[in-house]
Design brief:
The protein is of the alpha+beta class. It is built from 2 helices and 6 strands; from the N terminus they run ββββαββα. The longest helix is centred in the middle third of the chain and has 14 residues.
Length: 97
């Protein structure tokens, strides 16, 4: 999965966000874009969507999560600290719908 890359202190994860969904879910992997598709309930106003993404990924991985690029875009890169690529893939494998 090209969307997840190992880095110092954790992993970088490329995601494609669809706002205003019924519930938060990791809906799949877009091979063409190399991004994990994520649906969120929030609307992209005043940082609400970014807060939801950080909160939900923190809850899933039990790790510190930071958005390092794409704050105002659907295409974001997250840095998830203190987790290996294999641990992250194991966590999201059970979440993909």
């Amino acid at each position: 999965m090209d969307a997840v890359k190992k880095t110092d202190g954790g992993v970088l994860v490329d995601i494609d966000v669809s706002p205003n969904s019924k519930k938060f879910e990791i809906s799949g992997y877009n091979e063409w874009r190399g991004e994990i598709e994520v649906r969120i309930t929030s609307v992209p106003q005043k940082g609400k969507a970014n807060k939801e993404i950080i909160k939900e990924f923190s809850k899933l991985t039990k790790s510190l999560v930071e958005i390092i690029s794409g704050l105002k875009s659907r295409h974001k890169t997250l840095k998830i600290y203190d987790i290996s690529k294999s641990e992250f893939l194991e966590v999201i494998k059970g979440e993909i719908r």
